[in-house]
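Predict the holo structure. Ligand: IPE.
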Amino acid sequence: MRASAVATLLTMRSAPSAEQDLLQQINADKLPKHIAIIMDGNGRWAKQRHLPRVFGHRAGISSVREVVRACGQLGVKVLTLYAFSAENWSRPGAEVAALMRLLEDYLQRELPDLQKNHVQLRAIGRWDALPSGARRQLERVIEATSKNRGLILTLALNYGGRQEIVDACNRALKSGARQVNEESLSRCLNTHGLPDPDLLIRTSGEMRISNFLLWQLAYTEIYVTDTPWPEFRRPHLYRALLDFQRRERRFGGL
Ligand code: IPE
Ligand code: IPE
Ligand code: MG
């Protein structure tokens, strides 16, 4: 199925040849099961163009669309996108409001495409604290796509890795546990049931995790590109996959 997914993509006539060349080099049997992305650099992308930051966020939606489709077509099982961190509330109110509106619009507009591509939407983070419009859309799309069996698209919203671990501990305590171990704590995390990310991509060059998936990234391969998120497209994703496939993962062994 995986091998044929790459083969099918290769037959896409409209793809430019440079993109096809990259795709051809990907080993369909060595794809990451779970890709996590810190979608960074929207504001700087806009600033370079003398545009307000929100234009960068809006432009980033095309990147989301393309990466979601590509991951689904390649047969990647899980894609987790860092869309709004627990610390992002500290930004100016107008930017936060614009981000929430964009999220709401994206969910509303994207539902038919997600359905068509069998994408199952999930969310992690304390997303119950989002403004009601965005929260309602999120609930609606999660429910509507819950039976889809294609790519699991997880949006990290009002997400913080430390908060997630604290919430998991509290959940364990509430269930009567007096001690936790790696397995029982993992079960209390938002990402319960999903494999840990094999590959973390961060766009726009910063060499940091910014409180993303602190527990789950323990042995994840990290790929940082200078490309800002609004410019990230299939060829950038393919390059990240090729880089990943050249890595030797040792997990502490030899
Ligand atoms: C990422 O882009 C989007 C969010 C954090 C919501 P930024 O808004 O962080 O853009 P830069 O990093 O300031 O360029
Ligand atoms: C991380 O980006 C959060 C998201 C991409 C949603 P930030 O732009 O908030 O991270 P810092 O502030 O550069 O660490
Ligand atoms: Mg940033």
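Residues 18-160 form a domain with the Undecaprenyl pyrophosphate synthetase fold (CATH 3.40.1180.10). Residues 38-40, 82-85, 88, 206, 208, 210 surround IPE (ligand 2) (CB under 6 Å).
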